[in-house]
Predict the structure.
Amino acid sequence: MRAEKLKVIPIAPAPAAEPKEVEQSLYQARKKIYPRTVKGWFANWRWVMVFLTQAIFYGLPWLNWNGRQAVLFNLEERKFHIFGLILWPQDFIYLSALLVVSALSLFLFTAIAGRLFCGYACPQTVYSEIFMWIERKIEGDRAARLRLDKEPLSLRKFGLKAAKHGSWIAVAGWTGFSFVGYFTPIRSLGQQIIATGLGPWQTFWIFFYSFATYGQAGFMREQVCKYMCPYARFQSSMFDTDTLIITYDTERGEPRGARGKKADPKALGLGACIDCGLCVEVCPTGIDIRNGLQYECIACAACVDTCNQVMDKMGYAKGLVRYTTQYAINNKLDRHGIWKRVLRVRTLIYVTILLAIIFGVALSPALRTPLTVDVIRDCGMPRMLDDRALENVYRLQVMNTDERPHHYVIEVSGAKGIALSSEDEFDVPSATTRAVPARVRVMPDPGQSGSVPIRFTVREEHDASIAVNEKAVFLIPR
């Protein structure tokens, strides 16, 4: 029998499954952070800075100096009073110098100890600390706040939340009022509020600054430091291996694990870290410092304080989380070796430049003459007097930048037979500008014609050190 051939029908491979589309949001929902209360050396210093900065901010507007507000940036009158110093718009150079000093100080502090400003003196940190203190006093510590937020709405919960937000609004409102008090005399500002007679711009800035404080310190908190503050993004460019940063000692702490107080970590094959998680719970930005330095870290050192307390309770040496440098970790330097490298050429250059600028800015107001004179010639043609002398008219814009009135004398020179034909003495009150007309006469000389250079001298009658010379021209028709 002939064997029948089997017909093989090829089976097409099954089509590959199409990849499923997965939607991934580019924006992560915020997970609320409930920082635990922490006590310790760094926490105490943080509160010292809170009291110091706020005593200055809230107190300066109420301080009087020579019968007026000690610090007042009067935009309406274009005068800036800083204790005994009066600055005008043309003194903008001092503001530029202040900005340069602030920038160099930031570079210096960052090169030495990272985000030192962020952790102790930044307004966002300071007001967040104040608002969290209010929150803890009213709602309790971390565990109590977690339970309260999970509870359904009740009369107790509503009362606690209302008290907290009411206290926040009161602090924010006083902050906005104090801020505007630097630009409007604060006592008159308070009277205007009582009489409901605030101007539009005062109203806007009080509410705007209050709302900003309430929103950023009460709700946004770590989001400002993580997403809004540009310093968090470029700080790494000012770091190097000798910058003091908050560091977890991985070699000493790993492998981490829970154990009893009396257990021998070497026998268990464990490091010093007991994996309690308290360093995460106290962090105001919610990071785990054991994962290494992160841009969200504001160098508040709360993790250092709480870890040292845990090490004390376990009977271990402190410093598992500490201020140190990457170079010191790698080379196992002691404290003397760390500070020897921290005070390096880079930081010394910053310090030298900073001190030179500060010295120059501080010395400049003491050496400047509290008198400014601008000479403006009248645009009209010279006038011929009865005795055939020519007369030009000028306007002297005299600014007394001192805090006391002065009596000035005008003198003119530069041409043959030149003399004043107007009053040569006048008074200018303190911190005032006065326009003084000056008529100058010259007996024409055949050899003089066109624009003849002359000079005005304005001097204080009783103080020869207060004097200003200004150039001008006397017009003689050809």
Summary: The first helix runs from residue 41 to 59. Confidence is low (pLDDT under 50) at residues 1-6.
